[in-house]
């Protein structure tokens, strides 16, 4: 479904109502969250599948958070919306990590949360590199 959204819907976002695109971005944002509290009965395969799903959602947000060629304001709309959601999501992950790290004392944080913070930091780094390569007028 995320691949379908990525290839068949978001590239044509300037022809789709903004409210619908906003709902898609909200869904991708929710899908990108994977450091949720897991129960002891949750199977290891379920955890890996959840992590992979959240990574795909986050990568989709990253993919549409910048555009190399924006000729009209409508074409830049999807980039601005995705960038806004991506940055908010990254900020939430960073804040939660800092707070949890402070509260954990000497106990290590869950693997899922460490994986998520690493992925977010890599994504932000990729975004910064991409923005440096993008033409200033875009």
Automatic annotation (TrEMBL):
Identify the Pfam families for this entry: Mon2_C
Domain Mon2 C-terminal, first and last residues per copy: 1-138
Taxonomic superkingdom: Eukaryota
Q: What is this protein called?
A: MON2 protein
- Native species: Pomatostomus ruficeps
Q: What is the lineage of its organism?
A: Eukaryota, Metazoa, Chordata, Craniata, Vertebrata
Q: What is the primary gene name for this protein? A: Mon2_1
């Amino acid at each position: 479904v995320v691949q379908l959204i990525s290839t068949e819907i978001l590239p044509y976002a300037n022809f789709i109502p903004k409210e619908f695109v906003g709902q898609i971005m909200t869904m991708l944002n929710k899908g990108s969250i994977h450091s949720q509290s897991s129960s002891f009965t949750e199977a290891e395969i379920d955890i890996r599948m959840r992590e992979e799903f959240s990574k795909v959602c986050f990568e989709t947000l990253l993919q549409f958070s910048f555009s190399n060629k924006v000729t009209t304001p409508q074409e830049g709309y999807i980039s601005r919306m995705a960038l806004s959601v991506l940055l908010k999501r990254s900020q939430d992950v960073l804040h939660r990590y800092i707070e949890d790290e402070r509260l954990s004392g000497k106990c290590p944080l869950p693997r899922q949360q460490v994986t998520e913070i690493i992925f977010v930091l890599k994504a932000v780094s990729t975004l910064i590199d991409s923005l440096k390569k993008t033409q200033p007028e875009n």
